[in-house]
Design a protein that fits this description.
- This protein is mainly α and about 140 residues long.
- The protein contains 6 helices and no strands.
- Residues about 30-35 have low confidence and may be disordered.
């Protein structure tokens, strides 16, 4: 995974975080002392990568899901608490939507479905899901 600066992450995922916060969908953050990625969030991230790998357009097929997850975990551990909190909110929302338990193809279908914006007039729930997917794609290094 390419290293993202704080500015790049906020630029790519800021809209998603804002939508999540405005919709009240941001889950409770992990304790401040926790610096490493939790086992569950690792599983969600790995599911995200494997789902995105099922789509050749993402350009992620060359990356092993395990290696990508390890790289992400190392990047995550080196980030400030606010950046980790942003990543946590995205991964927790994907977990709540059921991505962690999906097969790669089912996960990709779910991500695509969650990306739909309701014919230009999304409901608040659709807007949150769409913003979550956009921010998750940025975390995984996939194009929007």
């Amino acid at each position: 995974m390419d290293a993202l600066s704080r500015r790049q992450l906020l630029k790519q995922g800021g809209a998603g975080a804002a939508a999540l916060a405005l919709a009240g969908a941001v889950p409770a953050a992990a304790p401040a002392a926790a610096v490493g990625l939790t086992r569950r969030r690792r599983a969600v991230y790995r599911s995200l990568v494997t789902a995105l790998q099922a789509d050749p357009a993402t350009g992620l097929r060359h990356r092993g899901a395990g290696a990508a997850t390890r790289e992400f975990a190392a990047w995550y551990a080196s980030q400030e608490p606010s950046i980790r909190g942003h990543a946590d909110a995205i991964l927790d929302r994907l977990d709540a939507l059921g991505l962690a338990d999906a097969t790669p193809r089912r996960g990709l279908r779910a991500l695509r479905g969650w990306s739909e914006a309701g014919d230009g007039s999304p409901s608040p729930q659709q807007a949150v899901r769409c913003a979550t997917v956009a921010a998750a794609r940025a975390l995984a290094g996939a194009p929007a």
